[in-house]
Amino acid sequence: MNTIEEVLIRMDQIVDECKNQQSRIGFFAILYRQVTRRVRDGILAGEFEDNPRMEVLDVLFAKRFIDAYELWKAGQKPTESWRLAFEASKSSGHLALQHLFLGINAHINLDLGIAASDTMSGKNLDGIKKDFDKINSVLAELVDGVKANISMVSPIFGWLIPLAKGKDEMLLNFSIQIARDGAWKYAGEYHNDTNKDFQIQDRDKNISALAKKLINPGKFLGFLINIVAFAEWKSVNRTMDQLDQVANETLQGL
């Protein structure tokens, strides 16, 4: 894949595969497809500091997810943070939001920094900072939009947030702001280290630990999640379609 259009063709195929197989990987895939479409439209509209470079970044970024997905489907091992996300997708006991955050965790906390560095190979990484922040803003707005409308697929989610003292980020041990800041810091570390394999393995180990907390957030929060999950939609296809609608409406407003 060398263009966003080629990425979108593969993303369409993955979404269809997830629907046909009732795979919860589709929750992340359908939102990420919307992000990719939004970036494509932004490039066509000349929104970025360097639009051709943004296409390179977007393709490299997307390939990290697509390659991990294809490795896992082939019975091979992707990075551990992606493996945990994919394995968790087999369980109906996790919330749709947990599945989304597991994908976002692997993709932003690990993949984005690598993609940014690879885009700027042999160049000063700081040159891509503005466009890096731009793509993160799109992701953050999308997550906020989905969280604000998650009651459409998870009817009692909003009722139980106050029991977590209003700290909905704590409910899933994840913060998109922290992820974004950490991704840029890691991009710099990866960019300046000649031992790329070590950097990926070391970072993946840390991000995998966060994934495990997302999967098992502790007794009290786990109890709340079980209650929410009981009332959440069970149809993967129906949930994917609703998430697609919410994501589209959110991104249309950006």
Task: Please give a structural write-up.
The chain is mainly alpha-helical. Helix content is 74%, strand content 0%. The chain contains 12 helices and no strands. Helix 4 packs antiparallel against helix 5. It is globular. The two termini are 27 Å apart. About 2% of the residues have low confidence.
Short description:
The chain is mainly alpha-helical and about 250 residues long. It has helices at about 5-20, 25-45, 50-75, 80-90, 95-120, 130-150, 155-160, 170, 175-190, 195-215, 220-230, 235-250.
Q: What order do the SSEs take from the amino end to the carboxyl end, as H and E?
A: HHHHHHHHHHHH
* Net shape: globular
Provide the low-confidence segments as ranges. 166-170
User: Which structural class do you get from the secondary structure elements?
Assistant: mainly alpha
What is the count of DSSP helices, taking H or I runs of 4+ residues? 12
Beta strand %: under 5%
Radius of gyration over all CA atoms, rounded = 17 Å
Q: Tally of extended strands? A: 0
Q: Strands, helices and their partners?
A:
Elements: H1 4-21, H2 25-44, H3 51-73, H4 80-88, H5 96-119, H6 129-148, H7 157-160, H8 168-171, H9 176-192, H10 196-215, H11 219-231, H12 236-252
Helix pairs in contact: 1-2, 1-3, 2-3, 2-5, 2-6, 2-12, 3-5, 4-5, 4-10, 5-9, 5-10, 6-9, 6-12, 9-10
List keywords for this structure.
single chain, 254 residues, mainly alpha, 12 helices
